Amino acid sequence: MQTAESALQSLSTRFYALVSPSLPNEWEVDAALSALDSLSPDQIDLVLAQVPAIWPVSQSLCLSYLDEAANILSCLPAEELPGWVQALLDQYESSGLRVAQRFMADVETHFLCRMRGEMGIRLSEVSGRLQPYAGALAGQEMPLLPLAEGESVYTDTHAVYLPEELNIFPTEQENALLYKLIISCQWGFIRVGTFTAAQASHIKEDTSDPLLTLFSSSNNPALQGSLYHFFETVRVFSLLYRELPGLMREACPLLPRLCNPKDPVEQHPLAWLQQGLTALRWHPDTDNAISRCAMDWLNRILARPEERNLSGSAAEELAPLVERRYPGCPPLPALLFQGELRWHEVAKAQNLRREQRAELFMSGLAAHLVQLPDFQKRLKKDDEEGSQQSGMQGQDTTLIRERPAGSEPQKQDAESVLYIQLDNQDIALPEELRQLAEEIRQDLGEIPAQYITSAAGQAGEGVAALLPGGQADEGEGFQGQLCYDEWDFRRKGYRRNWCLLSEVALPPVQSSFIPTTLEKYRGQIRKLRHQFELMQTSERFVRRQREGNDIDVDALVESLADTLAGRSASERLFVRLLRDERDIAVYFLVDMSNSTEGWVGKVIKETLVVLCEALQVLNDRYGIYGFSGMRRLRCELFPVKRMHEPYNDTVRRRIGAIGPREYTRMAPAIRHMTRLFKEVEAKIRLLVLLTDGKPEDYDDYKGEYAIEDTRHALLEARTAGIHPFCITVDRKGHEYMAHMCGENQYICIDSIKRLPSRMPQIYRSLTT
Q1: DSSP secondary structure string, 10-56?
Q2: Distance CA 398, CA 528 (A)
Q3: Where are the alpha helices (DSSP H) in 326-472?
Q4: Three-class SS state of 614
Q5: Distance CA 138, CA 433 (A)
Q6: Dihedral (Cα; 339, 340, 344, 345), 10-degree rounding
Q7: Exposed/middle/buried for 233, CB within 10 Å: 0-12, 13-18, 19+?
Q8: In whole angstroms, how far apart are CA 768 and each of 143, 186, 682?
Q9: DSSP assignment of 555-607, as one string?
Q10: Strands 537-545 and 481-488
Q11: What's 390's DSSP letter?
Q12: C-alpha distances in Å from residue 46, one per residue of 43, 59, 79, 273
């Protein structure tokens, strides 16, 4: 007994050392550690080695882990325990404590079988492969076609909703193929026109069952709706066999296995219809009126699968026959890949897209009108005359298709909407608005006149703000939130979708900072501009060329020697002068934490002004963002200058608005810059991080954890072909910067006052 108590005391001491300074209740620890009595010393060491990874995430989860440790190791190889802990933490962070405890209770089913590829597969595991596939299917008709988790399979014509996990088949490959078939089938419903605007418009928001509205004339609308769904699936399968034969060749063997004798599909009197989808061949059970009617419609649909009205007509004729033979017949159950026809969701998505198209068209047309000299002149004239009709809102507006006023009419086609008439003036639509206008016309039948008048009003307000006495809103609004992973070095894995990052506007401020800075550094800016002019192109001599500007003497001597020695002489005898044009894109990421308050923040802003003024002579593309935040759910990014935005007075005033905010959680901002770089094509893509200290946040994001997360964010950037470089004014930076950024990938400036002069030198060395 003494020995057992001594062993428990020793385990408790080791456990407290691992979780210090966070100390739990003693009785909870003793109860959890008592469960380790049956383990060997080596197994106990292995179990305790995972405690530092689990404890900071959840103390309750860690104690449950100790309780189950003996059962876990009884079926899990010791070398697999770290990977299992990573999967456990993923379950906890995605679904909570109870789900994680269920995951813990059955290691074989939830972990080992999945590792062997004998169980199902989660959508999160394959979405990286499936999303590009869905985007390729959608093409230009439905850009991207995002995949999302849903409680059942369906599409609202904007996205495809899939189960969180599929375990229908015993292997991972088969379940992944089923995901692919489901996506293809839902895309097919959109492609063949199952959800037409006319049908969706019949659905009322207060209707409990959309089928009651869509098939209201039927005695059994649910049955008729399910038959419509089946015949539409036949049209979709005809499309898939024609356009995706490889997929259907692989997927067909899976289809019969989706049903078993206990399924409602097998017990339904029309089960043979679903069974025939495997190869588009049907074998009716009996030769009766129902079978003859169904086969007649199937043959007609297969002969003309592009006709959208056949499925509705087939369901309308077949449903009464089935109802007479089988009164109260239930609807034909859909197979998994068919999903559900959710007309309410389709109607919502269509209305949302309609609103988005209208907003895009009006804002795009307003931006186009603002640039027209005639529009500006007319508005200025109205302003001088005291007109109250800003932007010509009171004038006549007309949509002209394919031709200006007075020209001969031509045949309309997909590019027919080319002109609008505003106040008796023909205005050609720019190319980017033509397709949008045609989409609106196809949806609504015409371009509503209020779209044009609203755009003219917006344009009028925009121009009026530039006239004397006008007020222009130069700030950029809130840009939404993005989720980013965070690296946890203790578990050697990511915390998925852990940080929320928002782009927040940085309103420009009018102050004396910019004029004072330009005057203070006037001589240095002039010198830097001259130096940067010499960097616009680089020249170098390339030797041993087939043609060039001069003779390569060394190559000529070697050629003569080879000839005398009886060897074949080289033809590469010239020197050529090669001029390399710069192709560089740079993002500057600036620390706006509260530690930059005072002199530090002022010098950082001065540095940005000096550098931007000097960069005016180069063609380098660059953007400037500030970052700060508090906790993982409020990481903030402040656009100062976007990549393609010109450097002007607005940007200068935004630089003047840079000021201390909250804390220094760098990694989400770095990952966002990596995301932005994906849209930038350049030979050199450079990310310059300017900070005054090590990463940390209000929560436990500090020390080794914060440094390792930032290090991995920088490694992710390098993997994406980006060259990150860190500039810090932290005098203790050498203690951690080499590990965090890599050797020769950072510089520590010991005096903040030297930053404005050193920054351009650093930039020149990084880009030449």
Answers
A1: HHHHHHHHHHTT----HHHHHHHHHTTTTS-HHHHHHHHHTHHHHTT
A2: 54
A3: 343-370, 373-384, 431-444, 449-466
A4: helix
A5: 21
A6: -10
A7: buried
A8: 39, 51, 14
A9: HHHHHHHHHHTTSPPPS--EEEEEEEEP-EEEEEEEE-SGGGTTHHHHHHHHH
A10: unpaired
A11: G
A12: 5, 18, 9, 57
Three-state DSSP state, 145: coil
The 10s digit of each residue's pLDDT in 683-705 is 889 999 988 878 888 777 888 89
The token pair that represents 28 in the structure block: 């909870």
Name the residue type at position 137. Answer: L
Q: How many CB atoms lie within 10 A of CB 189?
A: 24
Q: Say whether pTM exceeds 0.85.
A: no
CA dihedral 382, 384, 385, 386 (to 10 degrees): 80
Note the Cα 461 to chain centre separation in Å: 34
Residue 655 pLDDT more than 80? yes
Answer with the residue of higher pLDDT: 543 or 261.
543
Peptide bond into 660 cis (omega under 30): no
User: CA 1 to CA 466: how far, in whole Å?
Assistant: 88
Asked if residue 73 lies in contact with residue 43, where contact means CB atoms within 8 angstroms, the answer is yes
- Two tokens at 758? 């050193």
Residues 6+ apart with CB under 8 A from 555: 543, 544, 570, 572, 573, 574
Sign of the Cα torsion 545, 551, 555, 559 reads positive
Residue with tokens 């014509």: 157
| Nearest-angstrom CA–CA distance, 740 and 703 | 12
Q: Distance (Å, rounded) from C-alpha 502 to C-alpha 479?
A: 7
Half-sphere exposure in the Cβ direction for 255 (13 Å, CA): 20
Note the pLDDT of residue 97: 80
pLDDT top residue among 174 and 767: 174
Question: What does the pLDDT look like over 125-162, one tens digit per residue?
Answer: 788 888 889 888 887 555 568 898 888 899 988 889 99
* Distance, CA of 38 to CA of 157 (rounded, Å): 57
Helix (H, G, I), strand (E, B) or coil at 363: helix
> Of 747, 619, 724, 722, nearest to 666 (Cα)?
724
Q: Are 196 and 305 in contact (CB under 8 A)?
A: no
Q: How far is CA 224 from CA 237, 297, 317, 319, in A?
A: 20, 14, 9, 5
Total residues found in the chain within this entry: 768
pLDDT at 433 over 60: yes
Please provide the distance, in angstroms rounded to a whole number, between the alpha carbons at the two ends of the chain. Answer: 74
Q: Can you list the alpha helix ranges (DSSP code H) found in 57-142?
A: 59-75, 81-95, 97-105, 107, 113-115, 123-138
Q: How would residue 392 be classed by pLDDT, with cut points 50, 70 and 90?
A: very low
Q: Check pLDDT > 90 for residue 620.
A: no
Taking 3-state DSSP, the helix, strand and coil percentages for the chain, each rounded to the nearest 5, stand at 55, 15, 35
Phi, psi of 11 (to 5 degrees): -65, -40
d(CA 365, CA 307): 36
Give the span between the Cα atoms of 376 and 368, in whole angstroms: 11
Q: How far apart are CA 127 and CA 125, in angstroms?
A: 6
